[in-house]
## 1
Amino acid sequence: MPIDMELEAVLRPTQYPMPPYPPKTITLANGKVMVVRQAVREDVPAILKSVHPCLFIERDYYDIVSARLYGELLAWYRYRVKSEYCLMGQVDGYLVGIVNGRMENEKVGMSYHTLAIDRGLRIGSHLFAAKMEYHLEYLGQEEVLIVAESPIGFRRWMIEYPLEATKIPHELGGGDSYLLTREIYFKAKPRLVVGDRPVSQELMAEAEAEIKFADDDTIRERIAGLKGR
Ligand SMILES: CC(C)(COP(=O)(O)OP(=O)(O)OC[C@H]1O[C@@H](n2cnc3c(N)ncnc32)[C@H](O)[C@@H]1OP(=O)(O)O)[C@@H](O)C(=O)NCCC(=O)NCCS
């Protein structure tokens, strides 16, 4: 279908210039090395292959978080959201976690979602820390607005950092936003933000060669355990 570029110019939101997130590696508790790197728009279809099986897992709110993340990534792919970014974690090329968010304006970041596809290794925690690192240290923002959709998310972000409660509505339409300020981030950084740079050429080449996705049963088992099948 031909695209009417004149109309597209109206439908497509403004994009702020966004400096790249420099990739890093994190050695997980099982000894495996996770490459954390920024996705490009063209990666979205490959990423969605790993998000799709999670739509049907009710355990720990995986269904709602995945459904929203799926829509947000599509909105980015189809140019229907302002200044979105996506960071991902890969182990041996396999996608093991995803985080996304966007710039509300130059100073304020809007955190969207965190999805850990392999569990028990704090992959979600490491990736959430990477996205806060991106907002504050690379986009140079003052603060990030965050809500939790699950009790585990609430424990991981609101309590572990800890974030500041506000009365500011969040774009996701849930409870009021919690705030990550520069002060909170830099205080939490030594505890929560880890990783080594630069990433070796071999690991980067493996991660970039293909965003591999595990089959549905493997993903379900990793997230919900054998009983979740
Ligand atoms: C929230 C989330 C990103 C945290 O990821 P994480 O830091 O890698 O943490 P895990 O999910 O591995 O573990 C969280 C807890 O679940 C439990 N858990 C770990 N592995 C598990 C498994 N295979 N099955 C069930 N529970 C498990 C543990 O009790 C762990 O508690 P801990 O705090 O003692 O470590 C992840 O749980 C997730 O993607 N949840 C669904 C989406 C979501 O809620 N996103 C956040 C929205 S605010």
## 2
Amino acid sequence: MFMKIIEIKVLRGPNYWSIRRTKLIQMKLDLEEMEQRPSNTIPGFADRLQQLLPSLYEHRCSIGAPGGFFQRVNEGTWMGHVIEHVALELQTLAGMDCGFGRTRTAGTEGVYFVVFSYMEEDAGIYAAEAAVRIVRTLIDAQPCNLEEDIQQLREIREDTRLGPSTGCIVEEADMEYTRKGYGPRSQVPLQILLWILPVIKKKQNYYWKPLKYPCQKVPWCAMKKG
Ligand SMILES: [Zn+2]
């Protein structure tokens, strides 16, 4: 194995790299021996990359025209830069259009900051790791299952998109709960209790306490802590 991820940071606000782009993955990457091997020195690398990810043709890179990135790979560029573009393209292919990237030296020989935009944090982190792995297999001329990674990214996207809407439902249930006055010590029907249970659990400032009246149908009530 060569090329080591030193750290992956999720940037969520104004940052060193961009004023406008606030959602960035910043990966610190040690190229190790690949520091001595830019893309043009690896036989067949550019062709394999082009074959695996033909849509990278759209990446204009510093050339500023379609095919620009491929031109850079053919002329010779370092693997951090290639990984940046692959990470962006993986996300784009999974339906998360991301287009900002930078790769700069981190001050130590062979160590780079590979920076690229994300739409969903977890997908961004996945893309960083997958891009390193994919570029490794391309260097080694090994087979690569790209579709599997794209499918993984799609699933991460779906999962994280479900998150906020579930959040909304809980929020609504919470409002309902407050509006109907099912406050502390009130004895609410079991069904409603079960319905609001996740809300109360979520709020965490409630706990469950058995009532002192065993004849009652609902033996529990929600008590506010403190
Ligand atoms: Zn570029």
